[in-house]
């Protein structure tokens, strides 16, 4: 299966990387690479993430990566919808 990133997910990933880079730019770069490596695994193991508790539909899943939630949908392709800090509230705008 193909793994496709939404514009919102890429924006949120960039925001998180900027925040991390305030303390350690190299750590931010490594973190982004690790996120891409982890999400690429979804192409062969799409159900590796858990069902998103706030969303009753089973085609929305998430993987927890450090302090971040990577929310994705699973259908004919894996679509990464957003990247959220675990402390942030998930909104409907995050999964459009």
TrEMBL record:
Highest taxon in the source lineage: Bacteria
Protein name from the UniProt record: Plasmid stabilization system protein
UniProt record similarity statement: Belongs to the RelE toxin family.
InterPro entries: RelE/ParE_toxin, RelE/ParE_toxin_dom_sf, TA_system_RelE-like_toxin
Nucleotide-binding is among the record's keywords: no
Sorted UniProt keywords: Toxin-antitoxin system
Source organism of this protein record: Vibrio spartinae
């Amino acid at each position: 299966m193909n793994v496709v990133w939404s514009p919102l997910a890429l924006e949120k990933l960039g925001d998180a990387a900027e925040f991390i880079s305030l303390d350690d730019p190299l750590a931010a770069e490594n973190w982004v690479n690790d996120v891409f490596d982890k999400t690429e695994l979804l192409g062969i193991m799409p159900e590796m993430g858990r069902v998103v508790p706030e969303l009753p539909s089973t085609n929305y899943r998430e993987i927890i990566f450090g302090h971040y939630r990577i929310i994705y949908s699973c259908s004919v392709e894996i679509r990464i919808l957003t990247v959220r800090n675990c402390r942030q509230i998930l909104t409907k705008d995050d999964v459009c």
